[in-house]
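Example pasted here:
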Amino acid sequence: MSNVQERIEEMVKGNPILVFMKGTPDQPQCGFSSRVAMVLKDHGKPFAAFNVLSDPEVREGVKQYANWPTIPQLYINGEFVGGSDIVSEMFINGELQPLLNSAAAPSEDA
């Protein structure tokens, strides 16, 4: 595993809810990132965000990490959830909220 892949893994595993996005939640730099940040903010649970525009290695590396070609990318409990369209669809049909609610829940084998 390359150094950038290890950094991405640490971020994904170290944050119950993490979005790799263009810009920041308060100043998104693309409409898709804005949509995901808005959905997460509306839910009200704290989340971490990484601005891929600040680090070209991570911007490219995260695409390989998830085998997903686009940004933003949402991870919950260390698992890749999807990009903007998937997150929006899951939010609308009620599938996202339980996932977000489960974030940072203590694991049963802890």
In short: The chain has one domain: 3-102. The first helix runs from residue 3 to 14. Residues 19 and 74 are 4 Å apart (CA to CA).
